[in-house]
Amino acid sequence: MRRGRLLILVAIILLLGVAAVFLWMRRQTPGPSGVAATPAALDRQNVVIAAQDISRGAVIPENGVILAPFPADAVVETMITGDVTQVIGRYARQDIARGLPVTTGMITDEAGDLLGTGSTASVAIPPGYTAIAVPMNRLSGVAYALRDGDSVDVIGTMLMVDLDTDFQTILPNNTAALLSPGDTVATGGVQAEPPSSQLVVEELINSLTAQTVSGGAASPVGNATFDETVGQPFYQVPSEAQRPRLVSQTLIQDITVLHVGNFFYTDERGEEVPNSIGAVPATDALASIPQPPDLITLIVTPQDAVTLNYLVYAGAELSLALRSAADSTVATTEAVTLEYLLNTYNIPVPTKLPYGLEPRIDSLLSPAPQDILVQPAPTQ
Out of 37, 46, 152, 276, which residue is the most buried by the measure of CB atoms under 10 Å away? Predict the structure, then answer.
């Protein structure tokens, strides 16, 4: 009795196993379309797909697109579904490769609305920022060590002078003596006669080392002093033009380098060539010599872009300082002037001595950078 029940149980298990194998094999058997007959394979939607390569600006022909099944869960709202007439006869806004689903952004009704997809450089600019190119040379560009993606600080250096607020000219102003007819101009300690109420220009005085100032009034610039020996006020004229004053300060910190040098563009032949004006012809022997970059493009805020644009056209010198890749801190720096150097680094003003060097030194005699790098060719 027990043996019979055991045999029946074994037979039921075998039947269930055979049924499971049969169902598994049936699911793996391809259907009429050659695709496994699974529920997911049946969940599809017809979309418009390019049947051939369509170039940007071309009118899409009737045989250029077809309807083809597409996984329904992969269909997005911009895809064109149901009817190819929505695409035929319209313009391609970009190159459409064969087999690629056509979206609403790829086509247009207006022939003039054929803008490109933009540059790859614009993709690297974060929202809210802009890119601007500034001049660069070997000294300001960290000896050409900079590469795309580096973080740098921008240091600005400029010269400042005193200006007349009315004329916007460099001080000191030239002075003129205004005298009535019959009056004389006094020089060399001779007192000038007082001018009358009606003044006319008698003579322009701009070459004397000492000039009379009527009534001892001070000029807007320089010093009006009264010499008690001769009883005459004199105006002290400078011996040379005003010397500009140098100042240097960090302007922008922790900004990203978008690109070093010129960008490339695709010419009519589809080849990438550098954007350069007056390039050396290919037949010239110098064309094979790589030229160092003279521009660098930085990613900055819109306000910093305006600041850099002003400084470039104002003639300021811009230098780039390379930052550590792991450092994003913002430091507080002080503007450097001659006074700052003397006070901070304890530099004394040289004492006036009764002796000096011969020959006289009027400027620094440091060698130029190119003189340091150029080495004489070895003799054979």
Answer: 152
